[in-house]
Amino acid sequence: MNTKQVDNKKVFLLLSFLLPAGILSILMYYKNILPFGNITLFTDSPTSKILSAYYRFHMQLHNGSFSLLNPSGVNNLSMADTIPFFFCSPFTLISALFPTAYTFHALAAFNILRIGLAGLFMYLFLDHHGRNQKTGADNNPSDASFFSVFFACAYALSSSLIVQQVDYRYIDFAFLLPLLFLFFEQST
Question: Mapping DSSP to helix (H, G, I), strand (E, B) and coil, where does residue 39 land?
């Protein structure tokens, strides 16, 4: 790979992260949604008290009453339920370290980061598949990279919309899924 191809690849990698994160940030700013405004997307459904459990987890971390050895876990969930809820996502765990007044701002900011990572990792997956494919009459690799960035951005934004409606914690799967597919394909 020559230096021009390496530079182009860096540009496409950067675009695949910045486009979905930037588009989502602009929309959130325009609609006055956290972290840029005061409207939150984190709503609690009557059947699932995930956010109230997260808030209790946050409070236990800050007042020193949380313990991994506590068999009752958080919010009367067992530790087997608490660990997947709060510890499997590094972003959720890091956001719990923020002061209480900024917890939901941190969660919203990390969602923007997650969407950027979903675009970046989907680009890596698509680029891996498009490397040896013919891209047209000229076989120009930058054409394939352009389309990879476009579809990675579409994947990141659509996955954010779908996952946000189900449960905000599952948005980690949006950026981990392309990496898992890439890993499984390279390991076989």
Answer: strand
